[in-house]
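Hey L., structure's done. Input below.
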Amino acid sequence: MTAALAHQVAARFEGRSTRGFVAGKLRGDPVVPALLALPLLGGVLDLGCGRGQLALALLLAGRAGRVTGFDLDAGKIDRAQAAAQGLPARFAVADLAAAEIPPCDTVLLIDVLLQMPHDAQRALLGRIAAAGPARIVIRTFDPDCGWRSAFGFAMEHLRRMLGGDLGRRGAFAPLPPRDLAQPLEAAGYRVTTAPCWAGTPLPNVLMLAQRS
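Output:
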């Protein structure tokens, strides 16, 4: 199902290289089957959505009823909005450190928080919790995961040296999952954490926060 869905989403994008990137990302990312296995997500807000391929995949798979995506990269937002033509989707340029959190059922934070300073991460989680979505899904990098974390930090250092995408975004400051869970639990969410590395040596984990 993931391969067919990846092809369906990729076909909505202009440009051979962009279609190839989108299809490869959706086929190879362990977070995709993890999200597809969740109950219906309702209205989804994807913070740090990039080109929007994940939000569109959830929409086309029938896991989301409508999607909104925010990202600071205007070029990626333009591609996302063009790909979403005819679908109940909206993508907009926004600084997550200051953006208002619109009403939604589910908030996605996939590989986003670790790109922000620690205080900004906690502040964003507080604003999201105050907005009251039923579910918050976070994929993050666990800095306390032994050899996996050591490997992940080395890969990130190399990516930055080579000018990779994350290297152009500034901070790389992953907080331990327990620190991310704290403000959400204080706001009444029940938080569970599970590995999300599926065959990779990375220390990625998926956190699911749901209203008690």
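The chain has a mean pLDDT of 94. DSSP finds eight helices and seven strands in the chain.

-- N.
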